[in-house]
Amino acid sequence: MNIPLVDLQSLHKPIEEEILDAVKNVVKSCQFIMGEELRQFEEEFSRYCMVSFSIGTASGSDAIRFCLMALGIGAGDEVITAPNSFIASASPIIQCGATPVFADIEPDNYHLDIKKVEEAISERTKAIIPVHLYGQTVNMGPLYELAAKHNLKIVEDACQAHGAFYNDKRAGALADCAAFSFYPGKNLGAMGDGGLVTTNSQVIAEKIRMLSNYGQKQKYYHDELAFNSRLDSMQAAILRIKLKYLDEWNEQRRQAAEYYNHILRETSLHLPQSVDRNHHVFHLYVVRYPKREQLLKYLQQKGIGAGIHYPIPIHLQKGLGNLGYKKGDFPITEKACDEVLSLPIFPGITKGQQDYIAQNILDFEKSNLPV
Ligand SMILES: *Cc1c(COP(=O)(O)O)cnc(C)c1O
Fold first, then answer.
1. What is the whole-number distance in angstroms between the Cα of residue 189 and the centre of ligand 1?
2. Per residue in 310-353, pLDDT tens?
3. Which of 89, 140, 279, 340 is deepest in the core (most CB within 10 A)?
4. How far is the CA of 213 from the centre of ligand 1 (A)?
5. Measured between alpha carbons, how far is 172 from 179 in angstroms, rounded to an integer?
């Protein structure tokens, strides 16, 4: 059996005609940049997230960068984020002239450890970027208190959490502003790059529109120097179709995660917490295992597309070497990076596929001494 980490082919199959029609309409309209499809998608995504404003951008990375810039963050400022995330939770901080400061994580849910965040705060700290990693929202309550106490802004990295909840609010509605990515493999993915900012602040929304569209409100009147980073109409049209299915797809992911938790309970893998906490949308189903490399190799030989998210923590990435971090700075993060393993999960994954994966994990454990 061959099971990819993410099966976009089978996800798209039942909606292919609908998507092609939407694409055809954009081709006919010749409105490729801005225009009606984008306006409608932004409105629909705002309604979905229960926020006042959505602004499309060219990528999730740009969405994070514009959030920071809209909050006035720049040279000399520090922004605290998680070191166990994708690089783009940190690189936009540098791109806007500020310095990323990392804090270690909690070993069970892979989110920032609030005590470590407090220790990392200096007089230069301006904001925190909590990452709703793997599709589960960060426990925001303590973060709100900390931010209020130190007068800090919060930017959600919601790039893996489309549709997740924190209490009765969705990811995207939990902070000053939030960044989403529509990279194809995300829970809501375009067919190319794309991103978006959500916010309830009109001031932030207007600022981000300027930043993403050459600093112009009116064509050729550039009130400030800015960027070209927009969500194009073709992607917006495709995303409008896919947004209609997002809740259904997330439910399928959650059910698949619950089934994994059940069929893997006899293994010695460390499994994710209950799927009920905050409506985890399982962008990834991540287990931990001390002999991760051996298990990964074994599963790959059996045709199972397991993955690692992420093998190298951000603070040890070569590209960020000049920040001066070293191995041992964030031991819980570093241990997690050595042990995490993502099992295939996607809407439509079958019990047969999951059983095959679980069976292979059991076989692997039987052929290996207990750790
Ligand atoms: C995907 C992702 C991003 C960046 O999104 P792009 O659209 O690829 O720029 C940022 N943060 C996290 C946690 C992500 O998973």
1. 11
2. 999 999 999 999 999 999 999 999 999 999 999 999 999 999 99
3. 89
4. 21
5. 7
